[in-house]
Specification:
Strand order of the largest sheet: 2-1-8
Radius of gyration: 22 Å
Number of helices: 3
Length: about 150
Amino acid sequence: MAIIIDVRQDKRKNSNKLWYGHVWHPTILDTRALAHRIQANVSVKESDVYAVLIELAEVMTYELANSNKILLDRFGYFYASLRSSGSLAQDEWNVTENVKDCKVRFTQSYTRSQETASDGKMSGLQSRALSGGFQYVIKNQVRKSPEDDGE
């Protein structure tokens, strides 16, 4: 398993025409597919897992709409975030004119090691819960010469 990277050129009119990597998503797993995958690893029926996932989405939506932050252990935090414009004075700022967008953000959990570095200080090395062991491959790698192919 690996993260598949699609390398594409920025072709916008005023861009620098550089090439950038973008994660390619070959599949979207919906709630039913996740329930099926989870039930294979636990002693709970798929329909029960599905019901819990549906309720999780409902509860998360409710709690996020009430400005709460949600922590799923060993997974990460979900929280609401605003993009807004400024105003010259606090009493001039209002929701209708200044709020431009509201998004749900996610920050994955991490653990911090307790190892001591050679200088005697704590190293503070972080290990990401989700992406710590990702491997990467480039989608449709372009071959420039036979040497690139090992021939």
